[in-house]
Design goal:
By secondary structure, this protein is α/β, with parallel strands linked by helices. The chain has nine helices and nine strands.
Length: 257
């Protein structure tokens, strides 16, 4: 059984996919499996996945009809056999020591969740880099250290697999945007702790041709509406857990990052 299962949803990313898969091959930590879910991708991505699976049996490839990123991630959770689950988008990549550091901190603290910094290549998503290990046990600490009220990207987190399954955490398949906001905040609310991991980063790339960004006007209108759903969920979450001051502070801080 691998230590880490990396869940990689794949749709229309042939330009970036090899870089993503190569970053796993280049990890200093080699006890992983990659659950690659081909979500009915119409380009060369399925062939690239099959090529890597033929070269290295740590790549597990599933081909399916298009059902969206939430369904793909849920499939990955069901198929994962690792002690930990990491989500990785197929147009992104991680530092070579990423998995080693994330697992080391998770094991050190026996934490349900650990969170990395990330480097962004665009003006829409702001970079966060952690310099210290910070342990969040209260809801306020977990949200403050993770920045989850403004940056609730699921790919920043390593989760203990039994924590996900025990609490029946899954992605909302009715959403095409902000699905990770709901997942991450629900997880943070019940996690024993969230610990920041310094020294390694996730590299996020804004892909204008992604499933989220590349479709027609009707699709874009639906995405815009669902961003409002995410915004409301964050606000309601902050109100529910008595951290409205932190939510307002993070909103203001985000304007200047």
């Amino acid at each position: 059984m691998p230590v880490v299962s990396v869940v990689v949803p794949v749709y229309k990313v042939e330009k970036y996919l090899k870089r993503c898969l190569d970053c796993l091959l280049n990890q200093t930590f080699d006890d992983w499996q990659a659950i690659c879910i081909d979500d009915g991708s119409p380009d060369k991505s399925p062939a690239i996945l099959d090529e890597y699976a033929a070269r290295d049996n740590r790549f597990v490839v599933i081909h399916k009809q298009n059902a969206g990123v939430s369904a793909a991630r849920n499939d990955g959770i069901k198929l994962a056999t690792g002690k930990f689950i990491q989500f990785l988008d197929a147009d992104d990549w991680v530092d070579s020591g990423y998995l080693e550091q994330m697992v080391a901190i998770a094991e050190k603290y026996q934490s349900d969740m650990v969170v990395s910094g990330f480097v962004s290549d665009n003006k829409y998503t702001k970079t966060i880099v952690y310099q210290k290990e910070r342990v969040g046990r209260t809801i306020w600490e977990k949200l403050r250290h993770s920045f989850a009220l403004t940056d609730s990207y699921v790919w920043r987190y390593l989760f203990r697999a039994d924590f996900i399954r025990k609490n029946n955490l899954e992605f909302n398949t009715g959403l095409i945007a902000q699905e990770d906001t709901l997942f991450v905040l629900d997880a943070i609310a019940i996690a024993n702790m969230v610990v920041t991991v310094p020294g390694v980063n996730y590299h996020y790339m804004f892909n204008e041709n992604s499933a989220l960004n590349s479709r027609g006007a009707e699709h874009r209108a639906k995405v815009k509406m669902q961003y409002q759903i995410g915004k409301k969920y964050r606000r309601d979450f902050a109100k529910k857990y008595g951290v409205m001051g932190l939510w307002r502070f993070r909103k203001i801080l985000n304007l200047f990052r």
